[in-house]
Design brief:
With 508 residues, this protein is α/β, with parallel strands linked by helices. Helices cover 37% and strands 17% of the residues.
């Protein structure tokens, strides 16, 4: 007696097909699962056995072998319990074998209740790609899985309900695709920020060109407040971006019935005690880290020098390539990590440098504190800006500043300009320009060229600083809807390269 049931697993953040083969043969009673199962998969034996008995069926008193194909790929998690149960019942003749266009995923309780699993959307997308037309999932995963197109998703609460459906006795209503935006939470508004007009401008430029930004300033000056408002001025996500983010969060176990789809740009703000694995991802059972969870959104690192240096260094490659590679004995995993880095720090340990009336740190202490951030990491930041302590009149002023909605509309126009310009180059933002692309797209008028040449010599710019100024100036010019980069655009871009020289002694 034999049956074959379609199921799916997750590798990295992508789903892949798994064929659950069940063979009942003569011999001493036994229940073996083969095909590189991990401990969680093997433990499904007892849950499946109990669920079958508790739902009125006789468990086969025979030799029972379950093979998970492909046999050379590691199987992990609790997702295979439901297809194993269906396969046993089909091989025993208790139910008709489901068609080849039907698949099952789900964890079982001892009583046959279905419990949610991680990675529902990646598996549903893989099922749709492989021609599956009907996918049975735990009810709590149904909304998420239904976001995949070209597939019918059935929410299943328990085994009894599933079997009644398969027998044609009582049909389960398919899940309806969720409408992103219904559960969107209001984001902090830029209108709440008092003063700091120079910092607001820097944030608008950073958002417009996809630039990484670092904020330096004393405690209580609004650095964190400003950073938390960055997602609110970024354009709304496309469907593809929602799918990418939801896949990552689903694999990490961060989706659920209340928020099945990630419809807002992520904002991740890990504590400075985070480990390298927590930031980059990995572990014994590889999972995405904070930088992947921030994909298509913002990664905010507050009190940057307080992070361990080796932890910060793991960001260097993802900031360049837009993904994280995790290698393990059983295989390699790639997690998307295209995020906008926003970092904040005090200028010294006490926080008040260069105000010598308040600062109690020695020059050596200041140097050691700022030296915790490596030059290669600073090299990946385009915009440096400073906050100041507000005066009483600025704080007590009841007038509201410009709201995030208006700022976002301007940024959307700039994003559209870049999208059209780079549609054949494989990039989206000015921040991604290579050296060759800079020559092609960062065209200056004569006045701007002369000004930049003088600045280059007087400020002893490095080649890296030169390129960063041009990329930032390109964004500023786009905000002015100017095809050519002019002197005023260069001048403003240079202003965002002075803080690094001020605090770290070099122009990065």
């Amino acid at each position: 007696m034999f049956s074959s049931i379609n199921s799916f697993g997750v590798s990295g953040i992508g789903g892949y097909g798994v064929e659950v083969e069940v063979y009942i043969s003569n011999g001493l009673p036994g229940f073996d699962i083969v095909g590189l199962p991990d401990a969680a998969v093997k433990e499904a034996r007892e849950r499946v056995r109990a669920a079958i008995k508790n739902n009125g069926f006789r468990f086969p008193v025979s030799r029972l072998t379950v093979n998970l194909a492909p046999a050379d790929k590691k199987k992990a998690g609790t997702v295979y319990a439901l297809p194993i149960l269906v396969g046993i019942l089909a091989a025993s003749g208790d139910i008709d074998a489901p068609g080849s266009d039907t698949a099952f995923i789900g964890e079982l309780s001892l009583l046959g209740e279905l419990r949610p699993v991680q990675g529902a959307l990646p598996m549903a997308l893989a099922a749709a790609r492989e021609g599956v037309r009907e996918l049975f999932v735990p009810a709590e995963n149904a909304d998420e899985a239904a976001f995949a197109e070209d597939i019918t998703v059935y929410p299943v609460k328990n085994v009894r309900e599933l079997l009644r459906h398969l027998r044609g006795e009582e049909k389960i209503e398919p899940a309806q695709p969720p409408r992103p935006g219904e559960d969107v939470r209001p984001l902090p508004d830029f209108a709440d920020v008092k003063g700091q007009e120079n910092v607001k401008r820097a944030f608008e430029i950073a958002a417009a060109g996809g630039h990484n930004i670092l904020i330096v300033g004393p405690p209580g000056a609004g650095k964190s407040m400003m950073a938390k408002r960055l997602p609110g001025i970024l354009p709304e996500m496309s469907r593809d971006e929602m799918i990418q983010c939801t896949e990552i969060h689903s694999v990490a176990g961060l989706t659920g019935r209340e928020h099945p789809i990630i419809a807002q740009r992520p904002f991740r703000a890990p504590h400075h005690t985070v480990s390298a694995i927590g930031l980059a991802g990995g572990g014994s059972f590889p999972r995405p880290g904070e930088i992947s969870l921030a994909h298509n959104g913002v990664l905010f690192l507050d009190e940057l020098p307080e992070f361990q240096r080796q932890v910060l260094e793991v960001m260097r490659q993802p900031l360049e390539d837009g993904y994280v590679n995790v290698s393990r004995l059983e295989g390699s995993y790639r997690y998307p990590a295209k995020f906008q880095l926003t970092a904040a720090l005090n200028p010294c340990k006490c926080g008040y440098y260069p105000d010598r009336k308040k600062c109690t740190c020695s020059q050596g202490q200041i140097k050691n504190y700022l030296g915790r951030i490596s030059k290669p990491l600073l090299d990946r930041i385009d915009i440096f800006t400073e906050t100041i302590i507000l005066k009483y009149g600025e704080i007590s002023n009841s007038d509201k500043g410009e709201n995030s909605y208006n700022v976002r509309k301007r940024i959307e126009k700039v994003h559209h300009i870049q999208k059209e310009r780079y549609k054949n180059d494989g990039i989206l933002f000015n921040s991604e320009l290579s050296a060759g692309m800079i020559k092609r797209y960062c065209v200056m008028d004569n006045e701007a060229k002369e000004y930049l040449e003088n600045i280059f010599e007087n400020m002893e710019f490095s080649a890296r600083a030169y390129h960063k100024v041009l990329k930032t100036a390109r964004t500023i010019a786009d905000m002015d809807e100017s095809g050519e980069i002019k002197r005023k655009h260069i001048s403003e871009a240079v202003c965002y390269r002075t803080a690094d020289k001020k605090y770290w002694g070099v122009t990065m």
